[in-house]
Amino acid sequence: TQLLEQSPQFLSIQEGENLTVYCNSSSVFSSLQWYRQEPGEGPVLLVTVVTGGEVKKLKRLTFQFGDARKDSSLHITAAQPGDTGLYLCAGAPANAGGTSYGKLTFGQGTILTVHP
Amino acid sequence: NAGVTQTPKFQVLKTGQSMTLQCAQDMNHEYMSWYRQDPGMGLRLIHYSVGAGITDQGEVPNGYNVSRSTTEDFPLRLLSAAPSQTSVYFCASSRRTSGPTGELFFGEGSRLTVL
Prior knowledge:
The complex is a heterodimer.
Chain A: E1 5-7, E2 10-14, E3 19-24, E4 29-37, E5 44-49, E6 55-58, E7 61-65, E8 71-76, E9 85-93, E10 105-106, E11 110-115
Chain B: E1 4-7, E2 10-13, E3 19-25, E4 31-37, E5 43-51, E6 54-57, E7 64-66, E8 76-78, E9 87-94, E10 105-106, E11 110-114
Parallel strand pairs in B: 2-11
Antiparallel strand pairs in B: 1-3, 3-8, 4-5, 4-9, 5-6, 7-8, 9-10, 9-11
């Protein structure tokens, strides 16, 4: 069973601060996704990273996939109250062909609260 | 744009009762899956399907059954509810890809309480 350890579990910061969320595993993943979830809703995809060492930017959010494809990070610059939510990392198994069949291993999630 | 629709949104059961959580998607996605979400544990895969007539177990399948008779529908059945099945259940669908995993589209969730 592949496991993803996500940290920290809770993050409470002031508007304008920077933050980083980490997602670590001893297993290799073919790709890794980050989702954001609002209360009462399902997770929504933010980004997919595929190549070891890959960096993707989405406005103030920067996502990185580790060189060995075992870990990932999400960095938010100048956080805003609208960034508040639950952030989830999810890895696709490194099986033959690379497709996950919709099966993902999720981290425990990081609840981010950004205070005005 | 319906996407993935789950019903009911809320349900309270007594221990031993059975029920079915419904899931329907209108995006013609091949893959569908059921996850449960518990505090501090992220989402855990219960069952998944790669197409009509094909299902398989995920990480936590015990106490749940699924079937996939059509591309659109993927119901989850609780055979004899237990308090440990109190959770929020999410249905998801995704397009078949030959490369990296595609985006999972989630329903809004079904909150189940078992007394």
